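[User]
Um, tokens okay?
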Amino acid sequence: MKVTEAGLPGCLVVEPRVFGDARGFFYESFNLDRLAQHGLAPAFVQGNVSSSSHGVLRGLHYQWPNPQGKYVSVLEGEVWDVAVDIRRGSPTFGQWTAVVLSAGNRRHFWIPEGFAHGFVALSERAVFTYLCTATYHPAADAGIRWNDASLAIDWPVADPVLSDKDARAPFLADVPAERLPVYAP
């Protein structure tokens, strides 16, 4: 397993060791002991799977309170996955990083608690999976507008397919301070 930082402190790309032959392949998608060697020991309590058509953009989502760390990957297709630091007081507040995740590269992306998360499907269909460190709480559900100019995210699609909720999400500057996570060094 290879673990590298993904451009923002705490955001990690995990590349599993893949064993393959004419029959197919095998890899460990999650191994707590191996991740702990890299300082990551999440306690997952919920797993989710979504399917998206080409151009569907989901995000930027987060929960506050009850923040979720997310360990994400793609089982079919390809996505461009984004994490945005929205922790008040963080030295990287408002900065983003992105990773291409696909069934072919088998990468996983760790997005720590306190980050907003979103992705856009680059393939005709993408099946996306994520493990979360907290369960979904409707009252804590929140989001940031995907095309917030202050974030300047360089999305690889000009006219994505959005849910009504994501299309109406507030800009980061319009989110009340008490609805944003707090940076804890």
Remarks:
- The chain has one domain: 2-19+28-177.
- Residues 60 and 118 are 4 Å apart (CA to CA).
- The mean pLDDT is 96.
